[in-house]
Amino acid sequence: MVVIIKPDAKKEQVNTFLGWVRDMGVETNVVVGKELTIVGLIGDTTKIDFDLLRSISIVDDVRRIQEPYKNANRKMHPEDTIIQLGERQIGEGFFHVIAGPCSVESREQIGGIAAHVKESGATFLRGGAFKPRTSPYAFQGMRAEGIELLVEAKNQTGLPIVTEIMSVEHLPLFEEVDIIQVGARNMQNFELLKELGHLRKPILLKRGLANTLEELLMSAEYIMAGGNRDVILCERGIRTFETAIRNTLDISAIPFLKSRSHLPVIIDPSHAAGMAWMVPALSRAAVAVGADGLIIEVHNDPQNALCDGAQSLRPEEFEALMGDLRALLGVMGKSLSADEAVTAE
Amino acid sequence: MVVIIKPDAKKEQVNTFLGWVRDMGVETNVVVGKELTIVGLIGDTTKIDFDLLRSISIVDDVRRIQEPYKNANRKMHPEDTIIQLGERQIGEGFFHVIAGPCSVESREQIGGIAAHVKESGATFLRGGAFKPRTSPYAFQGMRAEGIELLVEAKNQTGLPIVTEIMSVEHLPLFEEVDIIQVGARNMQNFELLKELGHLRKPILLKRGLANTLEELLMSAEYIMAGGNRDVILCERGIRTFETAIRNTLDISAIPFLKSRSHLPVIIDPSHAAGMAWMVPALSRAAVAVGADGLIIEVHNDPQNALCDGAQSLRPEEFEALMGDLRALLGVMGKSLSADEAVTAE
Amino acid sequence: MVVIIKPDAKKEQVNTFLGWVRDMGVETNVVVGKELTIVGLIGDTTKIDFDLLRSISIVDDVRRIQEPYKNANRKMHPEDTIIQLGERQIGEGFFHVIAGPCSVESREQIGGIAAHVKESGATFLRGGAFKPRTSPYAFQGMRAEGIELLVEAKNQTGLPIVTEIMSVEHLPLFEEVDIIQVGARNMQNFELLKELGHLRKPILLKRGLANTLEELLMSAEYIMAGGNRDVILCERGIRTFETAIRNTLDISAIPFLKSRSHLPVIIDPSHAAGMAWMVPALSRAAVAVGADGLIIEVHNDPQNALCDGAQSLRPEEFEALMGDLRALLGVMGKSLSADEAVTAE
Amino acid sequence: MVVIIKPDAKKEQVNTFLGWVRDMGVETNVVVGKELTIVGLIGDTTKIDFDLLRSISIVDDVRRIQEPYKNANRKMHPEDTIIQLGERQIGEGFFHVIAGPCSVESREQIGGIAAHVKESGATFLRGGAFKPRTSPYAFQGMRAEGIELLVEAKNQTGLPIVTEIMSVEHLPLFEEVDIIQVGARNMQNFELLKELGHLRKPILLKRGLANTLEELLMSAEYIMAGGNRDVILCERGIRTFETAIRNTLDISAIPFLKSRSHLPVIIDPSHAAGMAWMVPALSRAAVAVGADGLIIEVHNDPQNALCDGAQSLRPEEFEALMGDLRALLGVMGKSLSADEAVTAE
Q1: CATH topology of domain B2-63
Q2: Could you tell me which CATH number the domain at A83-344 has?
Q3: Which residue of B241, B255, B288 is in closest CB contact with C288?
Q4: What tens digit of pLDDT does each residue of D307-316 get?
């Protein structure tokens, strides 16, 4: 950290300040210039309260030089993290497509979609059991029963499952869930993150609608500080002034996160766009920009031709998309993890 | 709701759609124009999934006419809600100032500040026991012990206390807390909101950094739907592109919320500004715009002249501010609740 | 400026860099620490290209310490600027209300409104002659004729006039305009700002919808660098994610701008809110927060009771508001400039 | 448009309103429901003032059904616009890469870069002669001389040129410029747009930092309404709360604009990212998402190894990128326009 001291600070004040900082185990490097004095803080500054420092009366400004995250930082861990999940590997070079319905609605529904997406090449099954809904009057998910149905679908298809947790209290229900998802609204539910840090199970951490990329990495840090190193970051669109599209997919987040951190990064084009017709274009962009995977909503409603599913692809649309993605992955020198597995067999 | 049907929709499709809507217990009013067909949905549409409706293939757009909140809606409850807390009343006409430190740090600290702010006219004592911190390495609050110290300070000064909850699991610790605060990051922690709906204790609900005013009212609705009608809304600044000031205080939120809802609305100028010197100006604006109260950070650190407290006022600054607020309240035809109480005695 | 050098920079590279910087007439102060090297740039750094500096391969980051504006900076000019316009003074302590219709529509309209607002205490008349409209098919203003009608109204009432310029080419038409307004969309029309810098006439500079406060001050700097020191800053709401209200009035901009700059700062509550009913509350907040004036839309349409004017007050509403503002100004130790003038006579 | 009438409106008021609307040449379709009355406005509603309509006292809300743009609307013009520029075609299926330095600095610089980018496959040369700079103290471009140097480079390489205009007054200097660029800050400089509408020369219209996609299309409409149909839209990043990256590239803008409009849409990854290392990833995403081209900054500074050019690629980086883009274009069933031309020869 670099601390800029106000020009009118008295010498004794500066000395008191330096003593206070050193008491926290941080070394100081003072430069006295004509117009201003600059103090460099050297050592482990992660414990120093940035806001408190700025609040000191003789301090003009504080500039952070080192990132406030350690475990998630590529500088501390230059190689890409590859998460091992059974025989599957998640991370740079292993592209995954997590697919499934927005919500689990019935055994037939989740089973049918699971079979479909597997056939098209999806490598994970997703489905919401606990649903964060803006309105208390909207469907809140099948909850415990939804998770049971997901596990059944996993047993039938062999696809590992990803589903969202909304409260620490529900953790016992997630025993057989392969990847636990933290939704955008809970990205800074710090008590929940701490608990997930004690698990030995990958966490899919979605970026909050108005959270910076640094805050996303700090939330990953909460989980990793507890000992759980298997965090997958997910960009799912941010809230901006634009209203034509539900959320603004921050595509630049992928190269940025991959340069700052060694963790895998995936994209959720379905929630970002909120419109199924836009999902294929955004999914292609995700591959080309260098993401490590996608999480895509697919629905299955043959009896009701009326419904498109605002943000969900029909199975045949998903299948066509997977073909396009394979071609692009080829150009990028990657392949779908499921395809590799098939080849390996 | 008004549903606009696509021009190329077939008659049978429209009929199927109308049947589907009516099955949900909602009446339809169809207007067939030359260029487009419009369907008005009449009745209780709060259960209709807005996004699902938009996703139907023949639907061009859906426009909500009625607000999706009921209990928090002024149309359903035209008179201002006045929350009764012992002898105190909170709501339109009863201006409150909730004051205290950012975090509870020690018995001396919280006791000293409590005595000070009471003397200056504060009507509630605030102080953080559980602290939501971006970094896992930062001080997380005194937790249970912090609440105990708050209760002690309450017993000594007679000031009722306000403090933040971060997890459903901590609820038993909040027995003697007078108003439970839900922080900005938990505004859409729906599982927590549901639990608070079962209490009979006022909830101070802070707006999320990037949540719309409608979403804030929907979160109030979560609490009220559970039976707890005593919700106080709090504007504390939103996240925008501007970086010179920590958050952008959305002053217009006050007249907007008070026109749409009957709930009390207060302002937190300390967190919005992030700089103590700006708090008095914003506090005056809060009175003039018609807020029902303020929640202000005050610190007490006489032995360490170095620290200003980035966003906390010194006791003497707080006292001066209270004088200004009293004068403005007079012009607005209001008075500080504590002063009234004194007058009444 | 403080330049942080990358840890892996070679000594010769640092020396080349230092030479390059000194060639620009800036002194350097180098601190070599264990982990990083910091270079302080001392002297007039306003000509240094911030982005170019950051782009240098051995540079990790650049932090500005001094503001990039000089003429608008309170540090260079501690006393408040008081603009003298005939017998009127504009600035700290002299509160002004600029009132009038959105657009000039006819002699009767502008004349009628001018008489009304003068009677209620307005100190300036506003009215749009050139109208920036999102749609090319919308009314673009009466243009030259509109300005003529404004001048007529000025001659009849004695109220000086404020109206917006949209192109350098129209400048000759603004001879008799007292204050030239630069609208939000032209805040960074730098060629226009340069021309206005050559005038000796106050400029009312509105903040762009998505411009930072520093950018607003830099645009003022464009005008001042040309020799015209009479710039009035205007906060009129910014674009955020919130859609319930047209723009988010950034009330904190007032104390911020007044602390950083000596220029007068006013508020436009009409454009911010976009709804007339909200204008009185925001106007009161403007007085309480310390603004130097208001620019308010007032319409006059007695024959058409149907129209409220989305964001315009009716004359009687404006009159009532002026009464409230006078009372608040009294508490703030200020008075309406027009009242003072009356008192002085 | 659909107008929702307030429940308490009186019958005569509604009739007065209907008469007023019909006087504007628009038909009305009234639906009287139990709880509300809805009026559909049918016909050419582009001239109706949306805000005025909302301001009518008996109107609860107004919802637009048809887009307010006509000439730019795909509904009115289903086939993609292909702009013919000499032998070049711009639009769907013809991918272009516009490359060159941020600013024209000297004959050697622009000539050298022009030769390089042509060899790598660029199809247009870009370079700033008039530079919009936040600070009045920063380099404002070589202006007229810069354009002359661009024209020289065009004559030497055969690459048509693209450069930015900042004021109507400079138009005579743009005679030999092939595509005139309107920068983000001038996207709503309506007087400038009107003038450009009278030209017969393609306009590259960049999206403003905080302008919606609808506003971008309305600005295109300003140009097209004047008779100039050759508008190229450009997404260059928007301003959001995220500060880690200069602007947030709104990648979803491409599929959105291409679905709503028939105009070509390109991406500027250099200004969005502000960091050269991120440009290749974003450029690849642009191809995959379906953009019609890219505008990329390339610099040429062999003698000064120190400078990377914050957002400019080095010639060899640009060459490598072009190889990647060709491969991706192949998968997308497209090819670089320059390559086609070569093939055709």
Answers
A1: Alpha-Beta Plaits (3.30.70)
A2: 3.20.20.70
A3: B288
A4: 445 688 989 9
